[in-house]
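User: For my dataset I need records formatted as: sequence, then structure tokens, nothing else. Please produce one.
Assistant:
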Amino acid sequence: MEWIPIVLVTFKVLVLGTGMFYAIKWHYDQGKKTMDKRAVLRTSSMVAVAFVLLAVGLMIGTFFVARMLGLDLTSS
């Protein structure tokens, strides 16, 4: 029997289990803190704006690379 899959699956389970433990612990600790509603609104709006800007940048970059490679982007 091959030992590599056993070692790699065990390592993956340990890493993901540790990550999940710390993620749950971090969220639990954050829930204990009192947060200002304005701060939460400001942070969530900044995240939304960053997401939209990254999505637009990805779209423009995709079209640029497609044009550079000579792909036909016209609808038929």
